[in-house]
Request: fold
Amino acid sequence: MTDAPKISSQGHAWFARTVGVLLVLIGAILAAGGLWLALVRGSPYYLLAGLGLIASGALMVRRRVLGAWVYVGVFAATLPWALWESGLNGWALIPRLFGPFILLLLVAACVPDLTRDRAPRRASLGLALGASALMGVLVIAVLLAGRPPRPGRADARSSALDGGGGRRRLARLWRDLWRPALLDLGADHPG
Amino acid sequence: MAQITPANAGRLERAWLVHTGDLPATAEARARYGAETTPLKVGASLYLCTPKNVLMALDAATGKTRWRFDPKVADIHIPYTAACRGVAYYAVPTAHYGDVCATRIIEGTLDARLIAVDAATGRPCPDFGFGGQVDTTQGIGQNVPGMFSITSAPTIVRGVVVTGHQVLDGQKRDAPSGVIQGYDAVSGKLVWAWDMARPDRTGAPPPGETYTRGTPNMWTTATADEALGLVYLPLGNAAVDYWSGLRTSREKANSTSLVALDAMTGRKVWSFQAVHNDVWDYDLGSQATLVDFPTRQGPVPALILPSKQGDIYILNRRTGAPLTGVEERRVPTGGVEPQERSATQPFSLYHTLRKPDLTERSMWGMSPIDQMICRIQYRLATYKGFYTPPETKSRYVEYPGYNGGSDWGGVAVDPVRGLIVANYNDMPNYNRLIPRRQADREGWAPRGQERGGSLKKSAEGAGDPQAGTPYAIDVNAGWRLPVTGLLCKQPPYGGLRAIDLLSGKTLWDRPLGTARTNGPFGIPSRLPMTIGTPNNGGAVVTAGGMVFIAATTDNLIRAIDLKSGRTLWQDVLPAGGQATPMTYAVDGKQYVVIMAGGHHFMETPIGDALVAYALPGPAPSSAKGANR
Reply:
């Protein structure tokens, strides 16, 4: 992914600046909506992520490689947040991680545009590969977690009619974290 | 039906496919089509009706048409859906073989006629009503096309044809009556009429009067109990669904209830209420299923009653008393009619298909942006959990939504293994009561009074006037975002579950339906991954240990292992499979048949194909006669 389109010279860094503008735009939407959400007592994630994206994008527009590292920081915080919110529920992870991951690859591809130093350029390549590998591992984990439960094993979650006592809800959350019956890929392969 | 088993289901192939020829002629009709029919197999024939009530008899082995009868229903009579869920068969006990109409097929039509034709020839029965027809709108009073329809098969008990009507929801308080009528299966004469507000009467109203207007109706299928002489009616709601202040006490006593009538007299024997003073459109959509339920005192004639809110009840058929636990629990109050709301609602301790209440984390999207918008919507809405009362100051969340839980597909039961197989929906609705003045500005008017065409294209409740009450209702079915069309709640949106009949415990539970035809902006994602889609239409279980079900929005029919819930085989249908499949054997060969007619509400392609599946080759001779 370090093979950034060679449409720009390092002097102008058009590619990186375009990505920077994109980050600022997305960040502005997230920050504005996230502020609204936080004001109605919702999750603060979107506000914080939006501010992070604005900072990172603005720095990249100014051709500062620091902007790329700020985005890496946003992504590094997003990953555990997404897992904390959704566990290994594959479909629930898609909006939380897919877009941010694509942006991460774009940002990593911008690094050669932003600096001549070898170390950060290598780091960005390693980052792109490492993040891709991590996502691959996550996909496998999601698929494993989503395998249909063995027949005969009653799913307590579904038969529970409880209004949800604190401890039981925690237990349910814990169970959902590790065994969401969502992506049962296997179940729909005929034969 | 034990020929198709988990060992050979993978070899299923299409045996035949026939086109009924009933396709919508206009775009308006297309937006109202949904052939929800399940054929009936009697002798060597299949009998079915098309969306607009064309009756057909087919050779059960080849699909070849034996006869066809078109009662000529005009598009204007289509209520919410051009659905004809099925037909009834009646053999006249006193008739001799070969007599005209000795055996007959009876259906109800969208324009509220009962039609009886000779099962052998398809010719109208001259002795039934006037030339084979009965007009069930007698005594209804003011009515406009599409307000008062029959969409389900009539139920015949001890020679009495029992029918309810789909009275179009959400239009006006002064809607046609929900009266239940019983007609003689031979002569078509009215035997009784049950007008819940007039228990003193058992017949037609005297001249100049009508059946009581606006009473709860039965749009779905009743269940016959030939042994006890009872008919079990899953009733809906009084008009209108989301405002209860004008309902009478008799309406409140019977709405969203299963009512048992004496099929000979039309007198009420018992009733069981699933929702008190329902303002969530949780009308009972599922047919009740008869079982002998084991108790300490031995097997009791019982019925299984699924519901849209997901709770499944087991009731004693003689008394209506629950055989498994039902508990009144406190539910949220408030809303626009706080004094009307019941402080408690019944909860089944036996089983529920309902999932835990939504949280902000349940919100979804394809990116953080649309997910964030859904989270804002969640926070701005009034949501106090299950049974949140309707609101007008803000949107409110109704979860589960009016599509269930369990809807008209009901549940399938394996009485030998002692299993219930239930498909269900898992989606919220995002609603708001709209003050009358604003609704008037929007031009929301009841059926028959609109400017421009009278066939609305939107889902039920998306701008329903509820005329005669202070508020109209705006339902965002499934709680979807504009532009992307995605649902705000994360998947799954539907599932399939096997339940132990005796204990009510879940044996397996899985999302049902793949993402292949679903995606953002209405673009099919082509992903073969299971996501769990909305579904309408039921399952069938067989002695061979199989579950056959389509119902989902991915246009697939599946053969599922009853033991494990795993899909063993699937096929792409030529259109949406929003109908319950059925299975039978002819000369020792087992067939699985499904109507692939599509459904406007499920947004699946509309079609007219009836498809039959079987194992390849002729019937194994050893299997001949071995099938039940």
Residues 1-9, 150-191 of chain A have pLDDT under 50 and may be disordered.
